[in-house]
Design a protein that fits this description.
two-stranded antiparallel sheet; single chain; mainly alpha; 2 strands; 3% strand; 265 residues; globular; cell membrane
Amino acid sequence: MDTIQISGYIGALIVGLVLGLIGGGGSILTVPLLVYLLGYNPVVATAYSLFVVGTSSMVGTYQKHKKGLVDFKIGIVFSFPSFVAVYLSRRYLVPAIPETLFSIGDFELSKGMGIMIFFAIIMLLASISMIKKGKDEYLISKSQRYYKTFVQGLIIGTITGIVGAGGGFLYVPALVLWANIPMKKAVGTSLIIITINSLIGFMGDVQTLDIEWGFLLIFTLISILGIILGVSLSKFISGPKLKRSFGFFILIMAIYVIYKELKQY
């Protein structure tokens, strides 16, 4: 096992730790880790991310449920439209994206670069939504019309399908802002949505990609150890601090991804 592989597995532990603490962000670490450290193509990396984050989140859901921090009803309502969108995106939309999106002079925007930059833009928007407001400032009804939730689920599902994310960095803000769920419960509830979305999305990839199951399973097992540890540690961190930390974490990773993609030009 070489240094890069060891670093990759340490990264897998951190991925799980982040998922356990904030209910999202696993893919925000997993995709750059697989692309920039381990050298995977962005399309393959986003597929692997779905499996790692989905499987780890399943364990996290159980851990959070034992603490009474999962709202299954709201989780399922959000999950249904989004997992359909995630599957269709991974099965049909992502394979249909051309390898070269466009070129201007010496600059060429490839499929891989386009996915990573889109990923970073979504991360930036999510980070801003979590940093600029406190939970007490949200004036939102506890009941929202189902069609709005359905449309929101479709939109987030399509986005997370394209970028290969579980969607925690989008679902946690959505649950806090739209469903009026306290931060810590939003974290737990997001894990069930992430589990369903990610694993169903990965099913679309299995039909189009060759999967390195040996590496993927080891990486995932290490992430599961991390999420168990993260869930245990989350009880020592307050909701508002968790929310702001989540936002700043996403912001830093978004800037890093953009820097890495544009550095070659």
